[in-house]
Amino acid sequence: MMQVCTQCGEITEWHDAPQFAALSAQVARYLPGFEARGLEIKGLCGRCGAAAAQGGG
User: Fold this and answer.
1) Alpha-carbon gap, residue 55 to 49, rounded angstroms
2) pTM, 2 dp
């Protein structure tokens, strides 16, 4: 899984096998014919989030 900052573009890989396995099981159950191969989570990284909270973002 990857976390992608929508402001600066920083990408951080997140390895959580149990969480990804749970997601894959839900996809298989509710979306027959589809499979989870990867996941991007988009938002603000800590640095950009802090800057936005201070009014600089």
Assistant:
1) 10
2) 0.68
